[in-house]
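Students often ask what a 'structure token' actually looks like in practice. Rather than answer in the abstract, let us consider Protocadherin gamma-A5-like isoform X5, a protein of 340 residues. Its sequence is given first.
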Amino acid sequence: MVKTLFSIDADSGELKVIGDIDYEKHKQFKIKVEAKDHGGLTDSSEIIIDVIDVNDNTPKITIMSFSSAVAEDATPGTVIAMINIQDPDSGDNSKITCSIDMNSPFKIMASLTNYYNLVTDSELDREQTAKYNITITAVDGGNPPLSSKEILNLKISDVNDHAPQFEQESYNAFIAENNPPSTTILTVKAVDMDWGQNAKVSYFLIGGDLNGAPLASYISINSESGVIYAEKSFDYEQLKSFKMQVKAQDGGSPPLSNNVTVNIIIQDQNDNAPQVLYPVQTGASVVAEIVPRAADVGYLVTKVVAVDVDSGQNACERIFDVFRCLFRDKLHPNVLPLYS
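Now compare that with the structural description of the same chain:
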């Protein structure tokens, strides 16, 4: 092997390197040299050659163990990976500095010689960052230094740490009375920032009574879509408005939930005829009022009192019956001056 790496000039005795010398394979060579004159006398000597290291090897990174996913509630100091780094060079050329990207919630900690741990350095939040590409860099102490890199793809697994949030602080809905059953009243919606089953939202009515009956006999809700339906026809004259609570619950274990108030306002329809309370009419009899023959214009004949259980424009406020033949104003002959 020595003859493939070194040669000697037979005349001058000059020893030359003729092959590739690798410090990492052979740190020293011992070469036996013999000198012989023309008379046949000889002598020998041993040449010891020490190979000086050159920084010609990059550090080698070996991932001993690695958790490709870590829960977002992992405490600081949780070990993500164990790393071994070797550099076959010597001296400063083999001294390693290991580091990772700045501004990440992780850090490198030395454990044993040439061994390092990648650990969490602060709290994780999957909702902010769901994946990290962590670049591990190993740099030796040579001049110039050599380096190598290894990228670890780490996923942050979800923890059910967010309750569903409704899109509105409260909901108001209007529905006309006399509605057919199964009429859609409104849709509520809640969003959960978690992932997978933890983000699946279901909707429920919080039980209670309404007019002495279970709320569920009046209202139902689709647990998946949040659509609220009327189970029966509403009567404005019996129920003008009511409040109820809707719960949005996620699919986590244990589940998290939030409630919202829904205000239901029943709108009046003109479904009631006015009722005349005075003058009182019995059966099919005609109500008669006696008026003096000498009554002047503006004479109060009677007061008509009527009620209508509807509201607003649907309610009866005044009733006028125009007697066009007997009572006429000279200036306004078609107007009967009744007062209520």
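One point worth highlighting: Residues 318-340 have pLDDT under 50 and may be disordered. Ask yourself how you might have guessed this from the sequence alone, and why that guess would often be unreliable.
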